[in-house]
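Predict the holo structure. Ligand: zinc ion.
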Amino acid sequence: MKRLGSIAAVLLVFILSALALIKVYDKGKDQKPLRYADIPQETIDWINSLGNGLDDIFSTFSPVPRPTPWGNKGDVGKDPETGLETLEDEYFIIYYPKSLSKRAELTLRYAHEAIPRMEDIVGKYYYPEDMNGRKVPIYLAVGNEDYAALYKKIGGGDAGNSDGVTIYEISPSGFFLKGIILKGSSVFRDDTYHREVQWHEMTHYCFGASIDYNQRVNLPMWCTEGIAEYTGITGRRPQLGPQDIEMMRKDCDLSAPYFPYVFEVYTGGHTIFCHMEDRYKVSGVKAFLQTVYKEGIPASMKENFSTTVPAFEADWKANLDKFNPRRK
Ligand SMILES: [Zn+2]
């Protein structure tokens, strides 16, 4: 009897554990799998260093998964203390001070107009359904002061000299856009510039969300800023004086994390993508990006253009004069 009792006890324990396991499994089925379960340290370092000194991308890595759904409940703009108004539709939320209500309407229009451009060049637009229900929050600031305050509240960093910024977090749950901020005093000087800066920042959003963070990623700044200029600025090519071109020939190493001067990173980066388009058409630029998201730049140059980074760099430098409008 005694022996039988202990067998029954063992069986009971066994059945209970099996039930518990089934329960755990059922619970697991409801949870979304972590998108980035194992982010390499090199990639984490890159995420945390992005925008270093230029302040128009502010990205951070968080090891803690972000619970879903994401939505927009926690947005800084929802806090009545900010005094911001809200203009919202199915994809976007614009947070703005009353004095910028006309700009808010324009911002919403430019946001919608950006979608096909992002789909075309970056390869995908990220709708709320791709972001656990989160709409893109765009904040409008009047000038330096409220811009810096919003920057600090949303990102926790210092605004520096930037006119616009895209603030995001990468965690095992994926890419989370905290917000885009535009500084009115510099960005709203004319409508074209407003659209260009807004599309530049929206490119950071879609490009950043397209990268596979499970891979070792360490992209140079000419790539992140250059593609934002290339996608954001339509209908005109960058222009450079002969001195700028000489500087870039000396300074710019396409394999280095960044170029020494700001104009080299932005305008210079823009010329790199324009040159790529001249050589391999827009379809080449798009194919290049698709491979970059998963395998990085050297692999993408090899796969798509059968070339190396130094060979592409030499060809780009040899042809930089085409960006000098005064050349004969
Ligand atoms: Zn940028």
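The pocket of zinc ion is lined by residues 56-57, 200, 204, 225, 228 (CB under 6 Å). Residues 228-323 form one domain.
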